[in-house]
Design brief:
Helices cover 85% and strands 0% of the residues. By secondary structure, the protein is mostly helical. The longest helix is centred in the last third of the chain and has 63 residues, at 144-206.
């Protein structure tokens, strides 16, 4: 493995660093984007039950906020639960933008790695071919060992760059899709909270003589 790394030339170093960074991002995103961490089951139902029992005070809202990404969004609405539907919805949307940014953390870096590593491999190809043609100009084609070294450098860096870029691109697309689906589900839960909280208020007001 070390011989292969050495044969690829100095560009193997940046490509290796990109592969390590990509692997670290993939592992971290798999851990951070677990559904149980982002969207606990029946969170809206539990909030509604606390509200009906008049247990929904500031301490409980703080616990909800710290518990999950969805809880952070819902807590923003709960703080404004005594205001209008529009105010409550706007507060949830403002916090939701921050939550989405956290869910997309490092994905732009992963996408950059997927785009850059093939270019690094291509650069290695160009440098390897320049080395080959330089040897041909100086000594002709009588030294096949040096020619093979240049060609080997070109092929190794290209293959290594693609080997890093292809999985990085696949995981980048996968995590983006996963975040999009999670955001849609969180929006549905937030709208459900608004409906149950504001719906009860409107029903109570409608029944007031």
């Amino acid at each position: 493995m070390f011989d292969l790394f050495q044969a690829g030339g100095w560009l193997m170093g940046p490509i290796l660093l990109c592969s390590i960074a990509a692997m670290a991002i993939v592992i971290e995103r798999f851990w951070a984007l677990r559904r149980a961490v982002i969207m606990p089951d029946d969170l809206v139902t539990r909030i509604w039950q606390m509200h009906r029992r008049r247990l929904l005070d500031n301490d409980r809202i703080a616990e909800i906020r710290e518990g999950s990404a969805l809880g952070r969004m819902l807590a923003a609405g709960l703080v404004n639960r005594f205001h209008s539907r529009e105010v409550m919805k706007e507060a949830i949307q403002d916090t939701g933008r921050q939550v989405v940014a956290d869910l997309e953390r490092y994905l732009s870096t992963l996408g950059t790695i997927a785009a850059v590593t093939p270019l690094l491999g291509l650069l290695g190809t160009v440098l390897g071919m320049i080395k080959v043609f330089g040897v041909i100009m100086e000594a002709g084609v009588g030294n096949p060992g040096v020619l093979a070294g240049g060609i080997s450098q070109a092929l190794i860096t290209t293959a290594t760059g693609l080997s890093v870029a292809i999985p990085a691109l696949m995981f980048h697309r996968y995590f983006n899709s996963r975040v999009d689906k999670t955001v849609i589900a969180m929006e549905e839960q937030a709208l459900r909270l608004i409906e149950v909280m504001q719906g009860e208020r409107e029903a109570a007001e409608a029944g007031t003589p």
